[in-house]
Amino acid sequence: MLDEKGINSKLAAKDMFDNAIKYDPLYYKPYANMGHLYYYNSFNFNDPERAYSQAFYYYKIASSLLKDEKDYLLSYNLGWLYYRYKDYENALNEFSKIYIDETYNPIVSYNMGNIFFKMNKYELAKVQYEKSISYLENIANKISYLNPELTRHQELYTQLARNYNNMGVVYLQLIKYFPRQKNQLEQEALLNFYKAKDSALRVNTIYSYAEYNIKNLLNKAIKNRTPVFDDELLHKTSLKK
Is residue 37 within 8 Å of 51, Cβ to Cβ? Predict the structure, then answer.
């Protein structure tokens, strides 16, 4: 289903899942797998949103039929789509299903941090970014030889950069609620932006969000400065439990 053999093999898989649904329309798995086909492969649609819309349709049916079982891949992908469609309450609900059993999964914590940020719950976002950073840094510290060409290392340090950047943005948002701590919060934000920049550089990447936020924060002459928040969630990840 997820191989690289081309569109014909994926269409064949689609036909088989259609047949499975006809045999047992109340079994969730064929709907979930049909959703995966669209979510990961797009079926060469000129507009990828059409594929995501189809994936969303099948995932929601699968989720409604999933009773006491757990399907983390279904929950992750459905949560990703809810987030994409700005339905943050349902996105949080889906990622929370994973979070219950994987409290220290750094990808899930980052995703929940972004959701809390979008819901203006900055303190909760900060907690999740801190958890994600702690776990990712623990992994990074165990790497004896950093290889910038290795996908896992690229993903690890890129995800660290995103966490640090968004943590910096959270500190700047907190100034609204704690104006007397403005200088301290700006310093914390700047420190996190630099950490984001340095994390990306470890894998030879220029992280434009952090670069912009550093220049923006250091240039006091700019009025109504707005920090850039990285709202992208990983479509798929190699960072397992």
Answer: no
Average of per-residue pLDDT across 107-114: 96
Over the stretch 49-61, which tens digit does the pLDDT of each residue have?
Answer: 888 999 999 999 9
How would you label 18-49 residue by residue, b for 16+ Cβ within 10 Å and e otherwise?
eebbeeeeeebbbbbbbbbbbbebbeeeeeee
pTM above 0.85, yes or no: yes
Burial string for 74-108 (b: 16+ CB within 10 Å, else e) reads: bbbbbbbbbbbeeebebbbbbbebbbeeeeebbbb
- Judge contact between 163 and 129, C-beta under 8 A: yes
- Given a contact cutoff of 8 angstroms between Cβ atoms, the answer to whether 124 and 92 are in contact is no
Cα(93)–Cα(3) distance, rounded to whole angstroms? 30
